[in-house]
Amino acid sequence: MSALIQLVAQLPATLPAAVLVVQHLAPNSTGELLVERLAAHTTLHCQLAVDQMPLQAGHLYLAPPDRHLLTREDRLLVTKGPHENNYRPAADTLFRSAAVAFDSHVIGVVLTGLLYDGTAGLDFVKRCGGTAVVQDPTEAEFASMPESALRHVAVDYVVPLSQMGALLRELVGAGTATAHQRLHVPHDLQIEAAIAERVMGATEQVNEIGHQVPLTCPGCGGNLWEVNEGNVLRFRCHTGHAYTAEALLESSQHEMEETLWVALRMMEERKNLLTTMASHNGYWSTRQQERIKEIKQHINRLREFLLSSNANADQR
User: Fold this and answer.
1) For residue 183, what pLDDT band results from cuts at 50, 70 and 90?
2) Among its keywords, does the record have Coiled coil (predicted)?
3) Domain 2-176 has CATH 3.40.50.300
4) Which end of the chain has fewer CB atoms surrounding its CB within 10 Å, N or C?
C-alpha cells in the first residue's frame, strides 16, 4: 500500500484517464478502508469497483477483495472467476481485459510485490500495442514482481516511484493528443478475455489457443493446455485457471510438500501401531522391532528431505 499511495499522490484529478488498481488482498478483508487511505493522499476520485460501473477519467477504481476486475468498452466488470497465478484479483486478468478493450491506450504498471503476477499481463499489454512500466526493483520493498516482468517482457520504462507519476502524466497526455486508431488485437487474447468474462470456458476454446500437455491444474485437478502465443510461457485449464510457468512450478512444489507431510504422518502412525504390537511378548515382538527400525529410517530420511526443502525455499 505504501508504494501505491506514493504513486497516486502524484496523479491529479484532471488526469485524462481512469486508474484501475489490483492489490493482493485477503478474501475476508474489506476494500473500503484501503479506498479511504488512497483518497487521503490523492485528488483522484477513489472508489471500490462495482460491476457495470462506468469508467471515468480522473477516477481510481480498486478491485474488491476476492474479485477480478475487468473492463468491457466503457464499463467495469467485477467477477468471481477462477484464480490466475493463484490470485483473485489478479493483475494479469485486469491487464488482459484492458488490453483487449483499449489496445494501445493502455499503460500497464507493475509495482513492488511477491511472485509473478503482472508479468504475463504486461506481455498482453505490449502485444496489443500498449506501454509497460515497472518500478525500479532496486528500490522495491519486494522485488520479485518487477524482476519477473523485466526478465520476460520488453518493458518500456523502469523508473523509481518518485518519477513514475510524472511519466504517467506525460504518457497519458501524449495518448490523448492523438486520435485513437483501433489496432489489431490478437485472437488468442480475445478468447482468453471472453473466458474470463464468462467465468467458465470450454475445451473447444482452449484448444484454439494452446495444446494439451500431461500436467494437472492445481486449482481444479483438470487437464492443462500450454498456451501457444506470447513471450511468457503460460498454462491454463478449460475452467479458467491460468498460470505462468513459475507460478505453476510454485503450486506443484506446494502440493508435493503437502503430500509428503501426509506420508510422514502416516508413517508415524504406522510406527506407533508397530510399537504397540511389539509391546506384546513372543514371536511378534521380535518381528515388529525389525519393522519399527526400518520405518524409522524412512521417517528420518523423509523428514530430512522436507526440512531441507523448506530451508531452500526460505533462501529463495
Assistant:
1) low
2) no
3) no
4) C
